[in-house]
Amino acid sequence: MNGAAAILKALERQGVEIIFGHPGGTIMPTYDALYDSPIRHILVRHEQGGVHAATAYARASGKVGVVMATSGPGALNLVTGLQDALMDSTAVVAITGNVPQALIGTDAFQEADVVGITQPVTKHNVQIRNVNDIPRIIAEAFYIAATGRPGPVLVDVPKDVQLAEFNGSFDVEIDLPGYKPTYKGHPRQIERALEALEIAQKPVLMVGGGAQHAAPELIEFAEKTGIPVIPTLMGLGAFPGTHKQCLGMPGMHGSVAANRAIHHADVILAIGLRFDDRVTGKVSRFAPNAHTIIHVDIDPAEIGKLVNTHIPVVGDAKWVAGELAKGARPLKIGQWWEELNEWKTKHPFSYKPKPHLQSQEVIQAFWEATGGKAIVTSGVGQHQMFTAQFFKFDRPRSWINSGGLGTMGVGLPFAIGAALARPGELVIDFDGDGSFQMTLQELATVKKYNLPVKIVILNNGFLGMVRQWQDLFHARRYSEVYLADSNPDFAKLAEAYGIKGITLTDRAKLADAVREVLEHDGPVLLEARVYHEEGVFPMIPSGGAAEDMIIENPRETVEAGD
Question: Lower Cβ count inside 10 Å, N or C end of the chain?
Fold first, then answer.
């Protein structure tokens, strides 16, 4: 057995069933060994598509996603996806080939210092220099990626190591003295959290992406206490969006109720989130009335990093939420709920109907037709925010988007990864015409493996979110955002790949189009040509706070004479 075969054997022992990747010169020995391996390989058309697919596979399944690439340009094409996985705390292991060790540092063909380059965008990375270290390093990579705060790990393997004779053992023990994640929160800190909530008059529970695996415990705690719940963009689905205690997401394009609740809250319990700037706005003006902030996170570096924390709890969200649920008692917050329900009723997510088909009604139509029972991915932009607002997520791991890095182009490869992680489930990618074109070559991957993903392109002919900012903050100087004069016919493009394509322009045909998409046995792309001047509201301007929230499009308000 050579090193390449040992790599695959080590991956098999980690329970790997699927690898996303693209072959090339220095990783070719491992691809040769793959020929005899039971691991299924998914050939993507670009390495960035592969790492995004591995990310979605991890987030949809709860397992570790695996991607493989060759040296130089192949490995460097992973960088964006690795940073995306790092910021959204996703367990991914990347295996990259490299030139033989004797050539490292000589500017050999397709050589790059991938370990040095990816150090800032990975949780851990390592180059294997001794073939017999393969089982240990692979085992450590998976352990580091999946434990504590999950994140991407890169393992770089020079070609000579892949070709060397392997004489080591696969029975390895993981011993990492400097890496000991804390799972059980300190009992006294949990007691202090419950005591603070007991006397709170206006408490809220904020739930982030780090709590996706803690849904049952969160629901139990919330229902026992009666506390209002605010899931972040990454936390959608960790607490049911249709639950009567859910206020919707907070932040720049969050609900009025959620943002006002945080602004007026006296006690905030935050579980599995990192207080991103898109949630807090101007930190000095965030939650000005909160005398107690309780922050639960498995990563101690996140606690107090941005927001002053009064009761820190270092631990796993599921474990801590379970302990909180055990000690939970009903809170006396009836008057608080009266205030919250007034905001919910008066300011729901809504839109003013236009003569033209609108993004929001397309998304809402799919939500109603599916009953919300779908895994939904998106690219980045207005369509992402519209999806978060109008598709109510009731199940954990059902909403896969790029929150921290905001990576355009992730929607389609995310859908590929999700479909392979949970076969038999409905997967819908709501995408924008600008975002989709960054990775549209992955239509070939969809076709090759006949993945039954439903792609819905909300085509407004613009880089919509950029246009919205130019409209509001740059004197309507629409610089380099117009796409309609060069966009392809997306339905015909899908058909060129052998995928069913549908074009929708007429609102009267929306229900029929939704039905056709959902009933089609196989992949399908629906291009919905939507209103091009739509804005995502509510909106808190960058650097603003909840009291700066723009509830409705100011242009429409002025035009209506209000």
Answer: C
